[in-house]
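User: For a benchmark we're assembling, each entry needs the component sequences followed by a predicted structure for the full assembly. Here are entry 17's components. Please fill in the structure.
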Amino acid sequence: MSGFQYESPGSVDEAVRLLAGAKGNARVLAGGTDLLVQLRSGAANPDMLVDIKRISELRQISGNAASGFVIGAAVSGAEIGEHKELAKAWPGLVEGMELIGSTQIQGRATPGGNLCNASPAGDCTPGLVAAGAIAVIAGPNGRREIPAEQVPVSPGKTSLAKGEFVVAFKLPPRAKNSGDAYLRMIPRTEMDIAIVGAGVNLTLDASGVCVAARVSLGAVAPTVLLVDAAARALIGSKLDDAALAKLEAAASAAAKPISDKRGTIEYRTKVAGVLARRAAVIARDRARSNA
Amino acid sequence: MAGYEDKSFKWIGTRPVRPDGVDKVTGRANYGADMKLPGQLTGRILRSPHAHAKILSIDTSKAEKLPGVKAVITGKDFPEMHNGVLPGDEGVNFHYLSCNIMARNKVLYDGHAVAAVAAASAAIAEEALALIEVKYEVLPHVIDVDLALKPGAPLLHDDIFTTGVTPKPEKPSNTVQRIQMQLGDPDAAFKDADVVVERSFKTKAVHQGYIEPHAVVAEWSEDGQCRIWCSSQGHFMVRTLTARLLQMEVAQVRVIPAEIGGGFGGKTIIFIEPTAVLLARKAKRPVRIVMSRDEVFRGTGPAPGTSIDVKIGAKKDGMLVAATGEFRYQAGAFPGSPVGAACMAAFGPYALSHVRVVGYEAVTNRPLCYSYRAPGAPLSSFAVESVMDEIAQKLNLDPMDLRIKNGSKEGTQMVYGPKLKAVGNLECLKAIQNHPINKIPLGPNQGRGLAAGFWFNLGGQSSAVVNIAEDGTANIMTGSPDIGGSRASMALMAAEVLGIDYSKVRPIVGDTSAVGFCEITHGSRVTFATGMAIIQAAEDVVLQCRQRVAKMWEVDVEAVKWEDGHARPAGANAGDQKPLSLAQIAAKAARTGGPLVGSAAINAGGPGPAFGVHICDVEVDPETGHVTVLRYVAAQDAGKAIHPSYVEGQIQGGVAQGVGWALNEEYIYGEDGRLQNSGFLDYRIPVASDLPMIDAIILEVPNPGHPFGVRGVGEVPIVPPLGAIANAVARATGARMTDLPLTPPKIRAAIDAKK
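Assistant: Structure for entry 17:
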């Protein structure tokens, strides 16, 4: 690790100016739970770090379930977990965030960092994608908004241009009878990285028929996948065993994993379906109790 | 010596707070990396990225010119050592040891040290490493033991000729040795068996996973003296090996032990100390080297991977008739696998008239394989216990009945030579048999696994000093690093013999210039052997006290007895003297002959082997292959538990590491021969939530070789868990798996293959 310039701007505009004007490679520092490890191992060698934790807009959770929450990109996992209304409306998204690391890491890790680290195995990302979260991006040309799943493009790479960074996530207004869930497979019980992850977010009508669904898969492709075929297997059904079996098959079919030190193609493909099915059952039961 | 088993103790067997505990929980304790000397430099080591390569050249000139760099060394700075083992070398090939610490003409594994720098800061040292230009000619490599044993495998050394085979080979190979031990005629005896089970097993290399990385500070004086601060399992070992490798007189090297944050066998050898000394000598400044976790995985001494065949035959009633095992163990890049101990321990829990064990050791392109708790035995035990479980299933017998029927006991002839003296194998089996766990019904996808384990334990050389202060309190000192609560045990034994309160005894680990020689802390030997030295040193004090009181009372020493911390008249004829406490005697020490100092230096024999029997319940998620350990009970013969909490801690720690070994831990190499998981994210030791409360049952079958009946307890608890977990998983899934670790992908594949 050689020297670099460290900046901690107090405003979004200042952060954009620093990032856009940086000579060489500038990196955004949120919680640092990935970036600091990369610095120490030599995997990252930035010329400038722009610490965004002092920008108040990035550290707030605003809005509500009915109008839609806005989560600052640099809110910590611990803060997200302690936000009762958010956890009630989006338990799957919140539990995904809370699975990251230890208690100590929870004081640092952020949803913006998890998404922009662009690991397909990030535990917060599938929940954001299933929720239909919109990433608010600030940059030299002002602000723009894109679906969260369009931020990562491949492992370690995002679609953000020079000078841009994620400011916040906008969640859609939460309909009645909705529920979400995130499950991951790890060999241990905690402090581990997902071999497969699955997020499911769905809404039922008064008769219990699924009227909307989004299904995401982590660690089975270069980026977190939004699987439309899996969602279609659920929509219009009462989430019975037949629909769940279709979902499982669709999730496994969509998985395009690699074999590596953490798992094989065969294993990840099967378990993607298993976890999608199990997450759907949890989301369904949550939706039914959220009348 | 006999009779202690009936004696009632005041301190032995109690559970006071450990004397080193407060400093540890407050963060005050100094570990290897905490030492700081004025002017200290940071040392860093450049390591090979290749599994096997010739070093064509090393150019350090750019690194040397970097401002702030004070010294750069390579293999050329190390003295050349004799390639072989001479009398007095204690079995160490110093050429190999030196070449492991710093590569010479070849690098033999990913992580092999090739150069080192000392610089004014860590950043400068890192920059300097990047400026060292090493030209390699990459060679084919071999990681797997079966491939390494094959003719035509990439050859690591041209000076290894297999021992233990006739005729003596003319060509070098990777096969270091073949060993064989046999009782009876197993080949003939198998014909009498009603059932024979023969299976092949594979296991992966694992790391001890101690939390504290290796760390050293070395200082060199112009008069040729050298001081080393480090954490190790034996500072006398560090002294001897460093002195030999640097061709110094042993007494010129002083090694001061730090607290140790885990060793488990992995710190019974040196990796960085001579490098730090050479850098300090060249830089004329103290040098500190602290390994990163990546370096610990790539450049220390993990336990080997193996390939094993085990065959056992039994009668219908479960009586074993014959058994054979072939155990093929990886060494690392240099000879030193524990295959001998593995062969000797494999069938230890069983009385067998016809048994043969054969061992092979092969060098491979991976870090030096070194000791890990009961070296070699967990793997050979895993194979034997798996086959025993299958025999029980085939004969429809209770696996416990099968083990009790064939259990080794006092008088059993062991394949490696001796007959067993009093041991606690059957007692452990029966304790598990009677445990309430057996009555808990198992649910779907759950299985119960049983395994027994054996380990030798060691005695050896130890020294101890007991210094009585003028107020009758005691400072006691040994040279054995405390890796498992041994200071508490030393203080308890001293308090027992002296008859004073435990809180009046302060134990420390002395440095190599302060206390007599002690062998490394290994072989579960410290509470047994160093404890024996403490007992004798305390008895020395007691004798001196009696002699002085005899003078004061003007009687013979036999007329003064020592009881409950007081000198008392031995009988009616000894007079009507008031008892004198140790404090009263100490207060008069100046006038009765000077300071009260007791000492002992011994070579302890009769360590007495240890047995452990484990049972566990697991639940397997059939869709993900994830294993949850629901319950775990371990029974072990401790001889006499000096401090029961730390015996339980040893049992629980061994189980925790064994569960990791069984389920998730493995060295993962890529096709390129590079280690892919040199960190705790992808090298998965268990976290607390992965384990149930481990129920540790201590049995006490006194060891006749120790005054209090002590046996070593630190190693045998890691022997049975691999077999116990594998047997439980086999019974939960109906699929017997022979390839460790039992990772979720492997378990799911085994379940699918069964369908």
